[in-house]
Design a protein that fits this description.
By secondary structure, this protein is of the alpha/beta class. About 40% of the residues lie in helices and about 20% in strands. It has 2 domains: about 280 residues, Aldehyde Dehydrogenase, Chain A, domain 1 (3-Layer(aba) Sandwich), CATH 3.40.605.10; about 180 residues, Aldehyde Dehydrogenase, Chain A, domain 2, CATH 3.40.309.10. The strands form 6 sheets. The chain has a 7-stranded mixed sheet with strand order 14-15-16-13-12-18-19, with helices on both faces. A 6-stranded mixed sheet has the order 9-8-7-10-11-21, sandwiched between helices. Strand 12, helix 10 and strand 13 form a beta-alpha-beta unit. Helix 3 crosses helix 7 and helix 5 runs parallel beside helix 6. The protein is globular. The relative contact order is 0.14.
């Protein structure tokens, strides 16, 4: 791991380089209300920057720009869109340290993890630069031989992209890159807790040559003030949202009025299954990656550890030792291995879940408390719980790992499926047949087989049930931003058949 000393001067220099306005039609401008929004450092609680606080009027101005740019942008050659994305990849990669530090400042994750997100997030730009020129249609003869049939893919049109606070760069690139590749214009609404990375990214995409009006960015303290009027406007044709299930449900209800295309990546409650034959050291390593990446603040985070009763004691001992070895500290500190929770309210919610779990019979093996001092830190926690413990039905979104046991494969499957969510899941076993049997029966869009981190730009990301619909990444990702048009024409050779 690269160890870099980050000075206060370096932090201020970076922050001063970040745009603080609203990007509308290629220009950074002040909010129409004149109001500003403070962005805080969750490791200290202090204000990092004040940015322009966009509202409904600003949102509509952004949609005006996107709608005006859509026609010409849709006609832009795929190679030109691809080259813009590739330049964006190069520029983000060149400024990897800037993006990593900015994410650490506004979101809290350790610098090592932030660097990993830069590499992951940038890859969406490179992947979709390649997909842009390979998004093929079809040409074929109808089965009865009377018509020639042409199937084409067209950009769906102006799109509203709403990103969460936990992966400030990757969630922006995962939505913006396929939209650019497909020929869609956009209004990007970043999370109010972590908008700075999106602003820097938008600036980089301008430098990469993205035309004015194609990408517009409106940050604001009220998400509904921005999304509400946009979704009522018939010019908007798609909404892509990553966030909580309740908010996603509300957005889908609003989208129905204009029959908008929707992509929803919502909540998760990922089971982590450890079978009796698993390599426990590998399982613990995978558990640490699946649970502690991003301080557990990820929809793919392992949320329920279901361990075979024969190996549960040993697994818990090894897992607890690994958690104890972690060091919660500001992400800019070289010794930091766990950053803060995003804000005080989120930390309080996590602690309440732990207390409720203990009250219901759960046992704290390690951790179980907030860390004293500045910022919103929570000590990495391992709980030993029964199968009916309430914490197993909650999306924890923090560094808390509840472990329970199962006796049979059938019981493991039943426990895994006992959730309204169906995003990520993890299976540890040496038997590939067990993996196939279990993966075919559990209801999850993603399965990690002896792997704690499986997200990749080249793979389709998304869930089932209350975890949403649609896919981001992979060959499927660009499909979310296109509509299909079929052209049927008389076959001039039909009479000769």
């Amino acid at each position: 791991m690269t160890v870099t000393t980050v000075t206060a001067e370096r932090e201020q220099e970076l922050l001063q380089s970040v745009p603080t306005g609203l990007l509308i039609d290629g220009a950074w401008r002040d909010a129409s209300s004149g109001k500003t929004l403070d962005v805080h450092d969750p490791a200290t609680g202090k204000v990092l920057l004040s940015i322009q606080d966009g509202n409904s009027d600003d949102a509509m101005a952004a949609l005006d720009a996107a709608a005006a740019a859509q026609h010409d942008w849709a006609l832009t050659a795929p190679r030109e869109r691809a080259e813009i994305l590739r330049r964006g990849f190069d520029l983000v990669t060149e400024r990897a340290e800037d993006f990593a530090l900015l994410m650490t400042l506004e979101m809290g994750k350790p610098l090592a993890e932030a660097r990993g997100e830069v590499a992951y997030g940038a890859e969406f730009l490179r992947w979709f630069s390649e997909e842009a020129v390979r998004h093929y249609g079809r040409y074929f003869t109808s089965p009865e031989g009377k018509n020639k049939m042409i199937v084409t893919h067209k950009p769906v049109g102006p799109s509203l992209l709403i990103t969460p606070w936990n992966f400030p760069l990757a969630m922006a690139t995962r939505k913006v890159a396929p939209a650019v590749a497909a020929g869609c214009t956009m209004v990007l609404k970043p999370a109010k807790l972590t908008p700075l990375t999106s602003m820097l990214f938008a600036q980089v995409m301008q430098e990469a040559g993205l035309p004015a009006g194609v990408l517009n960015v409106v940050a604001g303290s009220s998400a509904s003030a921005i999304s509400g009027p946009l979704m009522k406007d018939s010019r908007l044709r798609k909404v892509s949202f990553t966030g909580s299930t309740p908010v996603g449900v509300k957005l889908m209800q609003d989208a129905a009025n204009n029959v908008l295309r929707t992509s929803m990546e919502l909540g998760g409650n990922a089971p982590f299954l450890v079978f009796a034959d698993a390599d426990l050291d590998a399982a613990v390593e995978g558990a640490m990656a699946a649970k502690m990446r991003n301080m557990g603040e990820a929809c793919t985070a392992a949320n329920r550890f279901l361990v075979h009763e024969d190996v549960a004691v040993e697994f818990k001992a090894k897992f607890a030792a690994a958690l104890k070895a972690l060091n919660p500290a500001r992400g800019t500190e070289p010794e930091s291995t766990v950053g803060p929770i995003i804000d005080s309210g989120a930390r309080d919610d996590i602690h309440q879940l732990v207390q409720d779990s203990v009250a219901a019979g759960g046992e704290v093996v390690t951790g179980g408390q907030p860390k004293d001092g500045d910022g919103y830190f929570y000590i990495p926690t391992l709980l030993s719980v029964g199968n009916d413990n309430p914490i197993l039905s909650e999306e924890i979104f923090g560094p808390v790992a509840p472990v329970t046991t199962f006796a049979t494969e059938e019981e493991a499957i039943e426990l895994a499926n006992a959730s309204q969510y169906g995003l990520a899941s993890y299976i540890y076993t040496k038997d590939v047949n067990t993996m196939f049997r279990v993966s075919e029966q559990i209801e999850f869009g993603l399965v990690g087989f002896n792997a704690g981190v499986i997200s990749n730009a080249s793979a389709p990301f998304g869930g089932v049930k209350q975890s949403g619909l649609g896919r981001e990444g992979g060959a499927e990702g660009i499909e979310e931003y296109t509509t299909v048009q079929y052209i049927g024409m008389a076959d001039p050779y039909a009479a000769k058949r």
